[in-house]
Design a protein that fits this description.
The protein is an alpha+beta fold. Helices cover 51% and strands 16% of the residues. Strands 2-3-7-4-6-5 form a six-stranded mixed beta barrel. The longest helix has 36 residues. The radius of gyration is 29 Å and the shape is elongated.
Length: 378
């Protein structure tokens, strides 16, 4: 009986409960979108690692984030070649510059990424096919992310300047959008020509390497990290470096802390809206509950009705929230907004909304204890 009464009440009083479902959906969307934006933004700096296929990265000791790497000497590569378990060694250069269009356009700060152009190159291999990599063999040729193309005042095939030296956009890539600045990918020779601070003696910002089949990766990593008393380099797995970069952006940068604070505010706002709207919807049905008590239905049965009503309202709000979140994720993908919608984000937002609905339900049940059939006569 309690189940049918709860559902019939919802169907009959749907106008009363609809705002509560919309409030729950709004809260879920607010939390989900904020969380997905947070993950997308803090993870953007780690794209250099996640868009590459190398298993291990070698860089300057104590590096906190991949974009903060400093040059290491060519002797680091010698140490790698000395390891029989290592199958592939590849340098990567991280430089900087100022982009200016030949036909005008303001200066744009760019990160110059110098990569290998060989067939088996692993740096940014997930987003740069070999056909585009071959285009970089020509001196002065560069690739830029299509999402950043509008910032550069130069279209594909056009000529611009980086640090006063001519470059030509030979193609677009998708998946390396910069935060604030723009990522410019080129060959290592061109990168050294654009940024003279980059090492020209065989050194690099990072060396990437892979292992032969059956090799013990952690053992090789530990051996390299403890090879000398004076550390000339440090070795991280790709997952470790990506996680370090994300945590640095999240906890040690001002932008990450500010975004965490904004996300917490969004959670609080969503919780308050959900709880107040749901409590108001239940409070509006107090006379009906008083009628049921007058008919002799025990309070425990009324409590079950209220709990089920709150559960159904939360469920419908959750479904609406999923649909809207998926639509926003699609729009973000179309406009290439850093938006990482994970199952964990959806689960966390749903848990918070359900907990808030449960608390609101308990408060409404507490109010039911004070109901009296005499209320019907007022």
């Amino acid at each position: 009986m309690t189940i049918s009464i709860a559902r019939k009440t919802l169907l009959h009083e749907w106008r009363r409960f609809l705002p509560a479902a919309i409030a729950i959906a709004f809260s879920g969307v607010l939390m989900t979108v904020q969380g997905a934006l947070l993950l997308g933004i803090v993870g953007a700096n780690g794209l250099y690692v996640t868009q590459s296929t190398a298993a291990y990265w070698v860089g300057f000791p104590g590096t906190q984030s991949v974009d903060l790497g400093r040059a290491i000497p060519a002797s680091a590569a010698t140490s790698l070649y000395a390891q029989p378990a290592i199958s592939h060694v590849e340098p990567v250069l991280f430089g900087s510059g100022d982009w200016r269009g030949i036909k005008g356009g303001g200066g744009v700060s760019v990160t110059v990424l110098g990569i290998e152009t060989a067939n088996n190159s692993e740096a940014l291999a997930r987003i740069i096919p070999q056909t585009l990599r071959n285009e970089l063999i020509e001196p002065g040729s560069v690739l830029v992310d299509i999402a950043d193309a509008s910032k550069l005042s130069t279209k594909k095939g056009g000529v611009a300047e980086v640090n006063g030296r001519a470059v030509r956009i030979v193609g677009y890539i998708d998946g390396l959008r910069g935060l604030g600045g723009v990522n410019v990918v080129t060959s290592q020779e061109t990168a050294r020509n654009l940024d003279h601070s980059l090492p020209s003696d065989g050194g690099a910002t990072y060396f990437l390497y892979d292992l032969k089949t059956g090799a013990n990766g952690p053992a090789v990593q530990a051996s390299l990290n403890s090879a000398t008393d004076i550390r000339r380099f440090e070795v991280w797995s790709a997952q470790e470096l990506a996680s370090m970069t994300t945590m640095y952006m999240l906890l040690d940068s001002g932008a990450g802390i500010a975004f965490i604070f904004a996300t917490l505010i969004a959670v609080m706002i969503g919780a308050v809206i959900t709880s107040q709207t749901l409590m108001g919807a239940v409070a509006g049905t107090v006379p009906q509950y008083a009628t049921l008590r007058a008919l002799g239905i025990p309070f425990d049965r009324l409590r079950i009705i209220v709990v089920e009503q709150a559960g159904w309202v939360a469920f419908f709000g959750f479904v609406i929230s999923l649909i809207l979140s998926a639509a926003i994720a699609l729009a973000a993908a179309i406009y290439r907004v850093p938006f990482e919608l994970r199952f964990s984000i959806v689960a966390a937002a749903s848990t918070v909304v359900l907990l808030v609905a449960a608390v609101a339900c308990l408060l409404a049940i507490h109010r039911l204890q004070d109901t009296d059939p005499a209320m019907l006569l007022r």
